[in-house]
Amino acid sequence: QVQLVESGGGSVQAGGSLTLSCAASQFTAKMGWFRQAPGKEREGVAVTYLGRSTYYIDSVKGRFTISQDNAKKTVYLQMNSLKLEDSAMYYCAASTMLGVGADLWSLRNYKYWGQGTQVTVSS
What pLDDT sits at residue 4? Predict the structure, then answer.
């Protein structure tokens, strides 16, 4: 069983920055951040694979950075140049599945989820 606890959410003006943290009881093959805005489906944002490779959805490339600290067992999501459309509940997720393919962002591949942390971007 993998426990995930997110923190770091909050309110920020557009153009600002936030760093989310996910404290994990252990790391798995894939550690990722997903988000869900009201009335929308949950979507993947960033994933790190085996702590080495990183993947992002197009809308956050160049603005968000995922990283992990093995000693602290923490995954971070540094978010810069935040936009109104980045407002959502952000969830940390973990997958034990090896390999990176077309299903990288498929929610069913992530067995473990945190409770989420809210990010609100205002104008």
Answer: 98
